[in-house]
Design a protein that fits this description.
Layout lengths: L1 H18 L3 H10 L5 H17 L4 H25 L4 H4 L18 H16 L4 H17 L5 H20 L1
Keywords: Cell membrane, Hydrolase, Membrane, Transmembrane, Transmembrane helix
InterPro entries: PAP2/HPO, PAP2/HPO_sf
Subcellular location: Cell membrane
Length: 172
Amino acid sequence: MDRMITGLHKVDQQLFYKINGSKLYRTFFGVITHLGGARISILSILALALLSSVYPSIRPAVIQAFLVLSVSHFVMHFIKRSVKRIRPYLTLPDVMHHGHPFEDHSFPSGHSTAIFSITIPFMLHFPAAIVILFPISVLVAYSRVVLGVHYPSDVMAGAFLALGTAVFVSIL
């Protein structure tokens, strides 16, 4: 079992180094990454809630997105405190780090959890929106690795946490 975990961690590190990018590349993703940040996530939910008074058809998706974001972030913080995975820019040599130095742990990615928590309910309620929302969500998750603050498995875990929470909330 230890060999398998060591092998997965090695693959995760190798993929990390392939994605962790150049300065120009990091500048683009330094902007994109904010779509999964706390301010934008909360402001998005508030703006969508206001918009739902004009467009009541989006109200169920807005309520679901609010619930998924809230529940998934509670779970995410519990997992971060339990797993305590050190961020790659603090443990790996020659990492190109861009942006704010975080003090919390890296697993799972909060930005990835947030963006997928907001977009998945809208993708479920409005399948045509997948062509826009899914690529945006993937870019935010990808940005976290490009910027050196998460391993690929951190962002995948965040996306799956959001998906699992969305499924859980939708069956309630």
